[in-house]
Amino acid sequence: MSITTNPHEFSFFQLTEGLESHRLLPDHANVWQLFDKWQKLYDATKRQSKLLWKRRYLKPKEELSPYDITHAHLVCRQARLEFLRYPIPETPEMVASC
Question: Which string of DSSP letters, residue by residue, matches 16-34?
Fold first, then answer.
């Protein structure tokens, strides 16, 4: 599977146990160096870090391409998970109308 619709919109993030925010990793980051740093972080804090692949920004009113199922699946899944994790104060009716 590959993303053909704007693959540059996705990046790796650092997901650290116990922290709400995800840290955007630079495109030139060396994975082995990251793992070494994360091991030191774990040794000091007992918080484990993982790689997270997600889209940098979700766009409102975006039309997903039915020809790029991987892209559509990733965007929909991320939107659903972030909505559940970071609920917004609008009423369900307002959200449904969006």
Answer: ETT-SSPEEPPTT--HHHH
Tokens of 67: 């020809």
25: tokens are 């990793």
Cα distances (Å, whole numbers) of residue 92 to 35, 58, 82, 88: 41, 20, 16, 10
Domain containing 52 equals 7-97
The tally of domains found in the chain comes to: 1
Task: Cite the beta strand spans of 1-98 per DSSP E.
Answer: 10-16, 23-24, 49-55
Q: Look at the block and give the residue holding tokens 């959200």.
A: 95
Q: Measure the CA–CA gap between 22 and 12, rounded to whole angstroms.
A: 10
Q: Which tokens belong to 50?
A: 């993982």
Residue with tokens 């146990």: 17
Asked if the structure places residue 1 within a domain, the reply is no
User: Which tens digit of pLDDT belongs to each residue from 3-55?
Assistant: 667 778 889 999 999 998 899 999 899 999 999 999 999 999 999 999 998 99
